[in-house]
Design a protein that fits this description.
Length: 482
């Protein structure tokens, strides 16, 4: 039993931890049973500005000139350290986010890969030659581009993958030679600090990565409006993300926001494989992943058969303590989050939906839920449900399935299940999402694929190479050979 906060962290600015003095504190509690896990000592707005000053100075004096092989080496060493200490991180993720150990292992493994991709990426940042004689008058000239780091990157991250989504910003930023001011989610700030310590041990210069602790409303505006910041990269909810883009003014902005991922199943699909992929993809991180399976469109002729399989798979999942090796689905991040999901399900039921399984909440635990008889106007369908709740709907024709899937102002990832590859590719072309999986659920992501939403799901791309591109600027250089 944890009697008092095990972890107590302040902000980390220019290599120094700030936690003395009278300051706002935020408790970090385990989502499963509410035990105190840690507390953070928040930064003031002035300290957030100091973090930018430090990052700006360290960029000019150190990072800008740090050779690619050194940046690569630091990232590689950080990956090795994370691998060595992976068990500690897996346990911490279970305690801090509530994700079961199996999922935590997946997150840590991916985080190690992100660091390794970034380590390799640091060595291959380059521009290109432009054949200038393609233009009239361009004869006798040589043109090429070079890529340079931007400077200070402000990174604001969500609670659901506090290790891997922090790394999707920090690792490419460092690979490219930038410096970072990170504001991690205040609900899950501990893994980011332990990661910071690995970077420090791996030899990252002090001030290249700074962490400011606090809430978004307290620190967000100060961070994104500072003129010295060259890129704001945000992962989180749409409401906050689009507001930050307005505040950021002329700055480059990456927004990785939410979605209500559509998944389409045709009658020729392998229904057992689809059922497993869809349920797993709907309940992973208790449905609190941006590409969780949410809307499932099923061809009429196999609707009953597939729904039966989905329900029996969902019923077979064990919900409970994330530290128990046999748990499939852990708690949601807070009781408020679970209560909000419960309200949305209840509201859908009053509007005519049928609970096929689940629908109940015990504290922060929310049972895997499948809803039938839903309509496109219900919140559980048209908004991001962000809970282990799947809605199943019927369609008859390919055209109808595409129209239903695209009937959303969100668009991050989609899944299509069919053995007909021509049909799958036709549909992939027409789905209004940033990515499409064929015979895999929307939730799948590898860390080197280009990843980002269209419509209200965001702007810009992550995936290490793509993030490195966004965190560098390309400069053209031309030579007149005389
Ligand atoms: P959130 O928007 O509440 O918080 C995300 C971050 O923004 C946190 O660090 C928070 O402190 C900060 N924040 C909150 N209000 C702010 C403000 N006014 N100004 C500046 N910063 C502010 O999101 P969350 O609940 O932590 O995460 C869930 C959301 O994130 C979901 O919508 C999910 O889909 C999305 N998400 C997207 C991706 C992706 O890659 N597209 C990945 C994971 C999560």
């Amino acid at each position: 039993m944890i009697a008092q906060a095990t972890y107590q962290f302040g902000s980390f600015i220019n290599g120094h931890e700030l936690k003395s003095g009278v300051r706002k504190r935020i408790e970090v509690r385990m989502p499963y049973d509410g035990q105190l896990l840690g507390e953070i000592f928040c930064a003031t707005k002035t300290e957030a500005t100091q973090a930018i000053t430090a990052a700006d100075e360290v960029f000019r004096t150190t990072m800008k000139a740090l050779p690619a092989h050194r940046r690569s080496e630091i990232l590689r060493r950080t990956a090795d350290l994370l691998e060595e200490r992976s068990d500690k991180f897996v346990n911490l993720l279970a305690m801090e986010t509530g994700k079961p150990l199996r999922e935590g292992r997946g997150e840590v493994d991916r985080a190690i890969q992100v660091l390794r991709f970034a380590s390799e990426g640091a060595k291959t940042i380059h521009g290109e030659e432009i054949p200038l004689d393609s233009a009239h008058g361009g004869e006798n000239r040589i043109g090429f581009t070079r890529r340079f780091p931007l400077g200070v990157v402000v990174a604001i991250t969500p609670f659901n993958f506090p290790l891997n989504l922090v790394l999707h910003k920090v690792a490419p930023a460092i690979a490219a030679g930038n410096t970072v001011v990170l504001k991690p989610a205040e609900k899950t700030p501990i893994s980011p600090v332990l990661l910071y310590q690995l970077f420090e041990e791996a030899g990252l210069p002090a001030g290249a990565l700074n962490i400011v602790m606090g809430t978004g409303p307290d620190l967000g505006e100060t961070l994104v409006t500072d003129a010295r910041v060259q890129r704001v990269t945000f992962t989180g909810s749409g409401l906050v993300g689009w507001k930050l883009k307005e505040l950021a003014g002329h700055k480059k902005v990456t927004l990785e926001l939410g979605s209500n991922a559509p998944n389409i199943v045709f009658e020729d699909a392998d229904l057992d494989a689809a059922a497993t992929a869809l349920v797993n993809g709907g309940v992973v991180t208790s449905g609190q992943a941006c590409i969780s399976v949410q809307r499932v469109y099923i061809q009429n002729s196999v609707y009953d058969a597939l729904v039966g399989k989905l329900v029996s798979r969902a019923k077979g999942l064990k919900v409970g303590n994330p530290l128990d090796e046999t748990t499939d689905v852990g708690p949601m991040i807070t009781e408020d989050a679970a209560r909000r999901a419960e309200e949305w399900v209840k509201e859908a039921v009053t509007q005519g939906a049928t609970v096929l399984t689940g629908g109940t909440r015990h504290g922060t635990l929310f049972e895997p839920t499948i809803l039938g008889d839903v309509t496109s106007e219900m919140k559980v369908v048209c908004q991001e449900v962000f809970a282990p709740v799947l809605s199943v709907m019927r369609f008859e024709t390919e055209e109808e399935a595409i129209a239903m899937a695209n009937q959303s102002d969100l668009g991050l990832h989609a899944g299509v299940f069919t053995k007909d590859i021509s049909r799958a590719l036709r549909i992939a072309d027409r789905l209004e999402t940033g990515g499409v999986w064929i015979n895999d659920a929307s939730v799948r992501r590898f860390d080197h694929i280009p990843y980002g939403g269209v419509k209200m799901s965001g702007i810009g791309k992550e995936g290490v190479r793509y993030a490195i591109e966004e965190m560098t600027q390309e400069k053209f250089i031309g030579i007149n050979l005389g």
